[in-house]
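Appendix C reproduces, verbatim, an entry submitted by the partner laboratory led by Prof. M.T., so that reviewers can inspect both the input and the predicted structure.
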Amino acid sequence: MFEGFPIRVYVHHCNVTDTHSDEVLIKASIDDKDWEEHRPVPALANDNILNLHFAGIEVHKFQTIRLVAIARVRCQEILAGIPGFSSLSQYDKNVRIVVPKDGFSKPTRLILGIRHIRESTINYAVQNYDNCRNVRSVGPLITISCQYQSRKDLTIDLIKRKQSDRKMTDSGKWFYVFKANEEPWRLADTEHTDKKLDASIKLPRLKATYILMEIEARLGTHQDEILKAAEELHYYINGFIVRMIAKQKKTDPTMLIVQCVRKELVSSRLEELEKQGYTLGPDISKDYLVMEDQRIKLMTKGNIKIVGESPDKVNTLSPS
């Protein structure tokens, strides 16, 4: 057991953030207790020099410790006063939140988060789920949490993006949908009076967490289908499209590495393994989707045996 002065424990990760709207957090299990989230301590000084990525936490006492680096959406905290205000997002200058005068009865903390959605996630949903078959593209997922109930409607302005960013097509139409708390998805009330805006979206007065999504779908897509697509997309946006890699060391085939790796990182991970001599083994698996905290039971047959674990223990693999 370690006990005494603070010690920093780091874990190497394969750059879990893939958009500028993400930040790295650490999930840690100390002495086999429940997993908890921690904000990492400053990165190692030689990260950029070595082109490696480390994240760690500071601990004072432990016997065993397990760490995994995860990506979380960066959130911006805003204090809304009685006079009202208008503020651009720190992480997406095309998103502006507007609180009218007397929008809240007292100063209220708002938490604004914006997640830019991985194209691989959208493609996976379109290819595998009927309700998403007419989806062309999806804008950023916007989340707003209000400390207190608003007295007036809030507004989200979506400022026009560059044409290259929008990927708009002649046969597509943008829909704006939202949900509040655990309510079903519904179409948002929008205005299109300002030529500088794609849309101005009204959010009803609630003490709520609002989730707002832009969906481009084929012309003629029914509104009910858009709402069903939003439900499925929101679920899969929080997941990871991954592939399983199993590689043995050429000079010592008893050495085996099995990893669950995000699809877009497979090529770079295979290159790293090849440099380490891990070149034998089957082809990588097909795509499949996993959710954070999902437990994956690894079953083997043939000449592969897991050692060092009790037979009934289920190993948890996390997307790298």
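The CA atoms of residues 254 and 304 lie 9 Å apart. Additional entries are available on request from the coordinating office.
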